[in-house]
Amino acid sequence: MDSSVNDSIKGDRSLTQGFVAQYAAEAAAQIDGVASLASSFAVALKEKAGVVHEGKGVRVVFYDDNTNSVAITVYPVIFYGKIIPEVAWSIQERVKMDVEKFTGLNVESVDVHVCGVVEAPSVTDTI
Predict the structure, then answer these.
(1) What is the C-alpha radius of gyration for the chain, rounded to an integer number of angstroms?
(2) Pairing of strands 106-112, 69-74
(3) Stated pTM of the model
(4) Tens-digit pLDDT profile for residues 32-81
(5) Distances (CA, A) of 17 to 6, 40, 58, 63, 127
(6) Can you tell me the distance from the alpha carbon of 44 to that of 122, in angstroms, rounded to the nearest whole number?
(7) Do residues 106 and 95 make contact, with C-beta atoms less than 8 angstroms apart?
(8) Tally of structural domains, the chain
(9) Is residue 44 assigned to a domain?
């Protein structure tokens, strides 16, 4: 069996994209200041059709040269009052570190496209 561009070190490319997206989404969601991750239009359509999308708010693209390198785009919604560039930098560092650590892939880039800002829930809202 030929190990072509359709396979990665972790197996089938389509399974790996979901796997990588899930790690990236979990890493981004742990950053202080991230309220949630926004779905793209395509993901929203898939979810309406009943298809579960593992890495909601994350897009993973594999490079065609079969070097096991990926580019990741994260779509966060940030809490009001947080410094957006600092939150974005933290997302980039954490996503790159976690994906490389847990998948063995080389993360070439992590782009952050802030999709919105929301007010943080107040203490009285949670009681």
Answers:
(1) 16
(2) parallel
(3) 0.76
(4) 999 999 976 555 555 566 655 556 899 999 988 767 899 999 999 999 99
(5) 11, 16, 10, 12, 39
(6) 29
(7) no
(8) 1
(9) yes
